[in-house]
Amino acid sequence: MASVTGPEIERLIQLLARLPGLGPRSARRAALTLIKKREQLMVPLSSALQIACERVVVCSNCGNIDTCDPCTLCSDPRRENTLLVVVEDVADLWALERAGVVNARYHVLGGTLSPLDGVGPEDLTIDRLVARVAEGGVSEVILALNATVDGQTTAHYVTDLLAPTGVKVTKLAHGVPVGGELDYLDEGTLAAAIRSRTPF
Amino acid sequence: MASVTGPEIERLIQLLARLPGLGPRSARRAALTLIKKREQLMVPLSSALQIACERVVVCSNCGNIDTCDPCTLCSDPRRENTLLVVVEDVADLWALERAGVVNARYHVLGGTLSPLDGVGPEDLTIDRLVARVAEGGVSEVILALNATVDGQTTAHYVTDLLAPTGVKVTKLAHGVPVGGELDYLDEGTLAAAIRSRTPF
């Protein structure tokens, strides 16, 4: 390909191919789209990326990604201060906010404990979480971690560390997803749904 | 979402979502990946886009996209001057070059005739193609257009316009794709494969 087009375009394609969801072929398509829509898409995207490079920061309080520190969520006075939702990743925080189901503060751990991948407590923001809770004012910590082995291991670890603070620690309910069909669910989910059945 | 993260990040996500192959959800994932890999990915991509914005041009001779005009292909002295391959789009040119199956010059039409979409001959580079062939030196024009109704309509139109020049006009063979199974092929392809059968 080096002889077909300039190295600058090749470089653009290679970088686009490193985005999740884009492979080498779709990266080429994306590059061609960008070049064809120069004014409507390539120029704005270039400047949006430059602004993001310069201004995006990780909130030193909760770990959210924003252009100010503390982030929009941490400095929002309408948020419930007594409720702290712990998530693995910023994507999970955004998912909960899109759903708009909880009015709380957040804490992003930055991952889960994973001995096999060499991720220990020091790689996550667990210390910072314990410090935030110890500062007082929080009456409930909701562990909104993924229902994976690593997620649940992390949940247990965090719960143990929070025990001395006496704060109430809860976790998300397991059960049948809304709109889900029993036939397609795994046994673990069905067992959890039976176990946690509620009065009709 | 406006209250969760800065408007700059929202804008980046919206622009990424306009790339082919990325939807709103994968654009968010891509934006988070970019932000997490700031030095390895976001900064290089930002500068690659800026360079592309400034330097990418359409070759005034063949319609290829490059950072020089005439493009790398048009100024390559090792290319066969007598063979001219006509394609709809730059992506088709790149696909043929990746396959490395023909050592020729190219001509990018910029689309196909499509009365329903309001695309007429004046929207394509057909005039320029006829002028290039009329200049002489070309002994064969290969119409490498898509095997769609619009592609074939365009092929007929171009062939008629090229007839006065007396140049040989050929088109790509139709048949069973290499590695393809008969059971999965449509009747049109099977009919073409039978019609154009070759001695074994």
TrEMBL record, chains A, B:
<dbReference type="InterPro" id="IPR000093">
    <property type="entry name" value="DNA_Rcmb_RecR"/>
</dbReference>
<dbReference type="Pfam" id="PF13662">
    <property type="entry name" value="Toprim_4"/>
</dbReference>
<keyword id="KW-0479">Metal-binding</keyword>
<feature type="domain" description="Toprim">
    <location>
        <begin position="82"/>
        <end position="177"/>
    </location>
</feature>
<dbReference type="GO" id="GO:0006281">
    <property type="term" value="P:DNA repair"/>
</dbReference>
<protein>
    <recommendedName>
        <fullName>Recombination protein RecR</fullName>
    </recommendedName>
</protein>
<keyword id="KW-0233">DNA recombination</keyword>
<comment type="function">
    <text>May play a role in DNA repair. It seems to be involved in an RecBC-independent recombinational process of DNA repair. It may act with RecF and RecO.</text>
</comment>
<dbReference type="InterPro" id="IPR023627">
    <property type="entry name" value="Rcmb_RecR"/>
</dbReference>
<feature type="zinc finger region" description="C4-type">
    <location>
        <begin position="59"/>
        <end position="74"/>
    </location>
</feature>
<keyword id="KW-0862">Zinc</keyword>
<keyword id="KW-0234">DNA repair</keyword>
<dbReference type="InterPro" id="IPR034137">
    <property type="entry name" value="TOPRIM_RecR"/>
</dbReference>
<dbReference type="Pfam" id="PF21175">
    <property type="entry name" value="RecR_C"/>
</dbReference>
<dbReference type="GO" id="GO:0003677">
    <property type="term" value="F:DNA binding"/>
</dbReference>
<dbReference type="InterPro" id="IPR006171">
    <property type="entry name" value="TOPRIM_dom"/>
</dbReference>
<dbReference type="Pfam" id="PF21176">
    <property type="entry name" value="RecR_HhH"/>
</dbReference>
<comment type="similarity">
    <text>Belongs to the RecR family.</text>
</comment>
<keyword id="KW-0863">Zinc-finger</keyword>
<keyword id="KW-0227">DNA damage</keyword>
<dbReference type="GO" id="GO:0006310">
    <property type="term" value="P:DNA recombination"/>
</dbReference>
<dbReference type="GO" id="GO:0008270">
    <property type="term" value="F:zinc ion binding"/>
</dbReference>
